[in-house]
Amino acid sequence: MTIRRKVKKVIDGDTFQTCTKVNGSNYIRIAGKHAPEKHQFGGEQSTQKLKRKIQGKVVTLKPVGRSFGRVVAKVRHERRLVK
Q1: pTM of the model
Q2: DSSP 8-state secondary structure symbol assigned to residue 52
Q3: Domains of the chain as residue ranges with CATH
């Protein structure tokens, strides 16, 4: 199952918020991506990079699980896998 959602806000380098819920949550963690938290070394750069890629844009999600109340999903933008 794939779902299309608009990205409302990038939280950090591997997590973002959608405008409408996906499987009960607005928070999405990108599957297979491990980025530093914003307060950690490299975190701000990682967050800015993801913002440039997807913030305000429509992405395609393929949910693969859940983690800490977030949906974990494979994410694509313009047919490219977001890594």
Answers
A1: 0.94
A2: H
A3: 3-81 (2.40.50.90)
